[in-house]
Amino acid sequence: MNAPSPTLLAAKDFKSDTKPVWCPGCGDYGVLTLLTRALADLALRPENVAVVSGIGCSSRMPAYMNCYGFHGVHGRALAVATGLKVARPDLTVIATGGDGDGYSIGGNHFIHACRRNVDLTYIVMDNHVYGMTKGQSSPTTEPDWDNALMPGGTGVRPFQPLVIALASGANFVARAFSGDITGTAEIVAQAIKAPGFAFVEIMSPCVTFRPEQREWKELARPSPVPPTDDPARAARRLMTDDGFNIGVLYTGNRKPYQPATGQERKPLNALAQGFAL
Amino acid sequence: MTVAARPKTSPPVSIAVTGSGGTGVMTAGNMLLEAAALAGCYGFMGRTSGPQIRGGEAAALIRLASGPVEGYADCFDLLISVDWLNLERLTAEIQLGANAIVIGDPSQGEPPASIMVPGIRRLALPMKDMAKKIPGGRPNMVALGYVACLIGLPEAAVADAVQRTLGAESDRLAASLAAIKAGRIAASAVDYPHKLVPDLAHRDERWLMTGNEAAGYGALKGGVRFVAAYPITPATEMLEWMSPALTEIGGVLVQAEDELASINMAIGASYGGTPALTATSGPGLSLMMESLGLAVAAEVPIVVVDVMRAGPSTGIPTKMEQSDLNIALYGQHGDAPHVVVAPNSVADCLATTQWAVHLAEAMQVPVVVLSDQLMGQTRMVIDPPPDRGFVGERQLAAANGEAYRRYALTPSGISPMAIPGMAGLMYTADGLEHSERGTPSSQAKDHLAQLDKRERKLHAVDFGPHWADIEGEGEIAVLTWGSCTGAVREAIARARDQGIAVKLVSLRLLLPAQPDRLAAALAGVKRVLVVEQTHSGQFHRYLRAEHTLAAELKSMRRPGPLPMRPGDIRDELVRWSRP
């Protein structure tokens, strides 16, 4: 996280004038609101924040924000964010995207970003569906969910992002709900402040292809237990709860990965000495 | 003691040091090259090996001379082998001359018949037994001492080279020097007329470096301060050289989880204002294609060095080919204007990669540098190339109170770039087609305007004389690129000795193609021999697709891994020059 702004900005100052492509009722509107609120609450300057994304409905986020943005190719947001943060540790770098982008085509980067523990915040808006391609199973979709591409469902066990994040070394792990603007803004603000790789899985309903997810509003509830710094305890909670406990689950104390940059120990031309006879 | 007067120069000598992987032939080869360099000679050592890390066939292919040499000779003069295991697999790569000498250890049996030439001179050197008598002694060091003595390298230069490699404090040093001495004593009884004549005049100014190191150093000189790396043969050594070098000068190298990540990390760093690079080989370049297109569309400068090996698929990871030309030029989906450059010697890897950084930053495009295994892994004695002063300089935006248009339609196509941290210039870099402001757009007018803008950039920069190396005059020309250039130069020199004048044109800038410049360079040329190392003639097709050439064209091509031989090209030129 970078130095706070001298003058306070409001959430709206972090929104652009571009109208989102999202469907009415999409959970991602809530995430846009709460993310911009978190940035304002942290008193950050828009020019010192970069939001990086891949491809999918939720990956459109940077265009709707007033800060630096990078909308790249499908699945590679974390790689772009890693390069940016390592080269520019002074910036606040946030990667956003969906479950298909982050857990399927980008799944390898997700695991290695957790391992690497660069000081990033990764927000996944999980709606258990590929929405932009009009309703196919994603890695988090239930195995029997019927759709045109896989009639009767994929029959494949859902991906467990929070457990995998924990096992792979993410330093901050939280589950949140896009309908809870205030609570999730607080979680996201904590994630941005947390050193190292902070992962926030936000349940964000797709009302068009998964209308039953409107029920999440009734099901999501604050977790009855506080965060732990014990990964084994956190994993046990994750593997035994019903998926609707909301809150920060785990905060670790691993040192973030940040090689020194900008510290010239010898002039460039001195490297040629290694070639001299 | 009287010393026989030596001639001022001597013809180059080609030496193959072979043995199965793990016997230390590459170490011995490198020491031999370094000893020759310290003695005042020029030369190089290429590497060829099977895919195994240990136990496969391996050879250090060395050529030494009084003056600069760039490429392999037609055949080898000396072959010394620690053992003969699987050496028949290198038969095509180690063609022996009629007057060659083969040196082997009698305890290792007979050399493979395929490699032998009838009537060839053979010498027995019991390297294994000799090494055994020295505690810690190794047969490869016996071989080194033997060959060094045969070709007349001073003992002190060999000792110096060994000490530089092992370190003065090494506990292996004494045993190595003793083994080398044993080899030297054994060779002193052999009459070998072919002694190297050193040129000590400017010895201390020379460099000993590989193409991979040269490319890495050139990148840093151009301004690269971020590298994302995923290991791949034969590019790994470039990344391994850059890693500590970057730390020294305040940059950083990150190991990525795959090539998809490495190119995107480079794009992320460059978006943040740090000139960035990744290096790979064919399979990695294939994986990077989508994101190279992203760098085109989002206008993020990056450099991708492809140290080519034989393809397709995994192909032959340890051996050269030029067959990534097509994907480097045309591999991206959509219309994606970018730059492709190719160094044409070990030394040129430095300047061309430095130039690539300059072009990427100036034009805000991805630049692909096509090196290959032959240049990348060959260690060569060179005169330090002059610094052409290429530095990456990006045109930066300045806030002026108006809404910032990142992708403004400027006459040159190059629009000033904002860097995160600059107030009042926030924008989203986008791989989606976009308006001038960067807002996603699927409208025909925005697509056309941005396609035109990105195309214009290719013509906004003066490539100067660097687009090609043009040498000599003649009604016949050879048009080539990359590592073939060394063999072509030597072939042309030999053809000239036979009274045939041949012009050389070696293209360094492949994309954007320079059809007018090439036409001017070939004015008056009636016949053009196109020399390349692909099976399908990718360069020949590219020339015909992108250029209008008045001269008669003839394609001379060969796939990897056998490098072009000057004699073959010379023969072709001689045949073709006859009326």
Task: Draw up the topology in text.
The complex is a heterodimer of chains A (277) and B (579).
Chain A: H1 27-41, E1 49-53, E2 68-71, H2 77-87, E3 92-98, H3 99-105, H4 107-116, E4 121-126, H5 161-168, E5 172-177, H6 181-193, E6 198-203, H7 216-219, E7 221-222, H8 231-240, E8 245-251
Parallel strand pairs in A: 1-2, 1-3, 3-4, 4-6, 5-6, 7-8
Antiparallel strand pairs in A: 5-8
Helix pairs in contact in A: 1-6, 3-4, 4-5, 5-8
Chain B: E1 13-20, H1 25-38, E2 42-49, E3 57-65, E4 76-81, E5 96-104, E6 121-124, H2 127-132, H3 139-150, H4 155-166, H5 173-188, E7 207-210, H6 211-222, E8 226-229, H7 236-249, E9 252-255, H8 259-271, E10 276-280, H9 282-298, E11 302-308, H10 325-330, E12 339-341, H11 348-363, E13 366-372, H12 373-377, E14 379-382, E15 428-430, H13 444-457, E16 468-471, E17 476-481, H14 484-497, E18 502-507, E19 509-511, H15 515-521, E20 527-532, H16 538-546, E21 552-557, H17 566-577
Parallel strand pairs in B: 1-4, 4-5, 5-6, 8-9, 8-10, 10-11, 11-13, 12-13, 17-18, 17-20, 20-21
Antiparallel strand pairs in B: 1-3, 2-3, 2-14, 7-14, 12-19, 16-18
Question: Any overview of this molecule?
Answer:
With 277 residues, chain A is an alpha/beta fold. Chain A has one domain (11-274): Rossmann fold. Chain A is 28% helix and 16% strand. In chain A, strands 2-1-3-4-6-5-8-7 form an eight-stranded mixed sheet, sandwiched between helices. In chain A, β7 (221-222), α8 and β8 (245-251) form a beta-alpha-beta unit. In chain A, α3 crosses α4 (107-116), α4 (107-116) packs parallel to α5 (161-168) and α5 runs antiparallel to α8 (231-240). The radius of gyration of chain A is 19 Å and the shape is globular. Chain B has 579 residues and is an alpha/beta fold. Helix content of chain B is 34%, strand content 20%. Chain B is built from 17 helices and 21 strands. Chain B has helices at 25-38, 127-132, 139-150, 155-166, 173-188, 211-222, 236-249, 259-271, 282-298, 325-330, 348-363, 373-377, 444-457, 484-497, 515-521, 538-546, 566-577, and strands at 13-20, 42-49, 57-65, 76-81, 96-104, 121-124, 207-210, 226-229, 252-255, 276-280, 302-308, 339-341, 366-372, 379-382, 428-430, 468-471, 476-481, 502-507, 509-511, 527-532, 552-557. Chain B has an eight-stranded mixed sheet with strand order 6-5-4-1-3-2-14-7. In chain B, strands 9-8-10-11-13-12-19 form a seven-stranded mixed sheet, sandwiched between helices. In chain B, β20 (527-532), α16 (538-546) and β21 form a beta-alpha-beta unit. Chain B is globular, with a radius of gyration of 26 Å. In chain B, 56% of the residues are buried. Classes of the chains: A alpha/beta (277), B alpha/beta (579). Chains A and B meet through β2, α2 and α4 of A and β7, α6, α7, α8 and α9 of B.
